[in-house]
Amino acid sequence: EKVEVDYVLKKEVKKPAGxxxxxxxxxxxxxxxxxxxxxxxxxxxx
Length: 46
Hints:
The protein is of the alpha+beta class. The protein has one helix spanning 39-45; strands at residues 2-7, 13-14, 25-26, 30-35.
């Protein structure tokens, strides 16, 4: 299964005044398509 992942530079992430914890907005994002496969994670975690 493929998933779209957005990523941004740290300077492009802002927390609005009075926003709940964890809520942010971002500008100028980039996107990539990744294959959702956890076998690599299982391999590294043992």
